[in-house]
From TrEMBL:
<dbReference type="GO" id="GO:0008299">
    <property type="term" value="P:isoprenoid biosynthetic process"/>
</dbReference>
<dbReference type="Pfam" id="PF00348">
    <property type="entry name" value="polyprenyl_synt"/>
</dbReference>
<dbReference type="GO" id="GO:0004659">
    <property type="term" value="F:prenyltransferase activity"/>
</dbReference>
<comment type="similarity">
    <text>Belongs to the FPP/GGPP synthase family.</text>
</comment>
<protein>
    <submittedName>
        <fullName>Isoprenyl transferase</fullName>
    </submittedName>
</protein>
<keyword id="KW-0808">Transferase</keyword>
<dbReference type="InterPro" id="IPR008949">
    <property type="entry name" value="Isoprenoid_synthase_dom_sf"/>
</dbReference>
<dbReference type="InterPro" id="IPR033965">
    <property type="entry name" value="ComQ"/>
</dbReference>
<dbReference type="InterPro" id="IPR000092">
    <property type="entry name" value="Polyprenyl_synt"/>
</dbReference>
Length: 315
């Protein structure tokens, strides 16, 4: 059996992240705030993706810990900004304090993540920095489209999700491969978008049943709402009328079970599952095209396909 170092040393990554923040922030209150936000991270899914691709493409060395920490810090800053912009996930610590303080801390974290890249002792440093910034900007563009909430159809919605969610997965994956080889592989970028799409569809489905994060109640132009608006049957039309009202799903339907049943009858549950499976199949096909040994391809599939819905949050 081929030995593969799959798992990132989370304690080492956490130390690297905290050391970087502490070295750049001199304001003690801001430092403690950022560190408190970082301590909410129990796992490091984006850093794990960076590490996974680094090792899959033959990388060896400790620089990957520093790069993975930078990726995680950026992802956390985007989570905070996303929650502040969407006004949800109120249980998070950055949503329980003055939003101006959280916004400033997130901006500082984003800036530090970029600065950390300049500390890499790699011949591929400038390629990594350029790629990092390119995908970060794409994610911001996707978020802006989502916030505008004027998406007209499913095709536009899929493009938005690929940019908003897929770009961060691509950032983590492509930079890991870049650190190992100095090359950007198109297939890595492309399957990252599909993995992001599949994970976001799963997140959006779960969020339908969260009364403090209900995209339907907010009439957010998600794939679910766009499908229901097409009114394929009476159940879909009834749900569209409910969404236009002001009641929560428990107030209107009496229970979460009744609401789930109505969604099932409308066809939206089946639709979302089909769309997710299509994205997963596309991702699987693209992963198979990676210029890697078969055992590494299977490793990527195992982590990206089987675990994708657990790893990605950009919702």
């Amino acid at each position: 059996m081929i030995a593969i170092r799959l798992h990132l040393d989370y304690e080492e990554l956490s130390r690297s992240l905290k050391a970087a923040v502490s070295s750049y922030i001199t304001n003690e209150k801001l430092l403690q705030l950022i560190l408190s936000f970082s301590e909410t991270k129990k796992t490091f899914p984006f850093g794990q993706l960076t590490h996974l691709h680094y090792t899959a493409f033959g990388g060896e060395g400790k620089q990957i810990i520093h790069l993975s920490a930078a990726v995680e810090l950026l992802a956390l800053s985007f989570d905070i900004l996303d929650d502040l912009e969407d006004l949800d996930n109120f249980e998070e610590p950055w949503m329980k304090i003055n939003p101006s303080l959280s916004l400033n801390a997130a901006t500082a974290m984003y800036t530090i993540s970029l600065q950390m890249l300049h500390e890499l002792s790699s011949d591929h440093k400038w390629k990594i920095i350029s790629t990092f910034q390119r995908f970060a900007l794409q994610a911001m563009e996707g978020q802006h489209t989502d916030l505008q909430n004027d998406i007209a159809n499913e095709e536009e919605c899929i493009t938005m999700i690929e940019k908003k969610s897929g770009s961060l997965i691509a950032l983590a994956s492509v930079t890991g491969a870049l650190l190992a080889t100095g090359e950007e592989f198109t297939c890595v970028e492309q399957y990252s978008y599909q993995v992001g799409l599949a994970a976001q569809i799963e997140n959006d489905y779960r969020d339908l049943f969260h009364e403090h994060k209900n995209d339907l109640a907010a009439q957010k132009k998600s794939l679910a709402l766009l499908f229901l608006n097409r009114g394929f049957n009476e159940h879909a039309k009834e749900l569209t009328e409910f969404i236009a009202g002001s009641q929560t799903f428990t107030q209107h339907y009496g229970s979460i079970e009744a609401f789930k049943s109505k969604l099932l009858q409308s066809g939206v549950v089946h639709y979302l599952n089909v769309m997710k499976q299509i994205a997963i199949q596309k991702a699987s096909t693209l992963i198979a095209e990676a210029p890697l040994p078969q055992h590494q391809i299977e490793l990527l599939k195992s982590h990206l396909i089987i675990n994708s819905s657990e790893n990605k949050r950009r919702d």
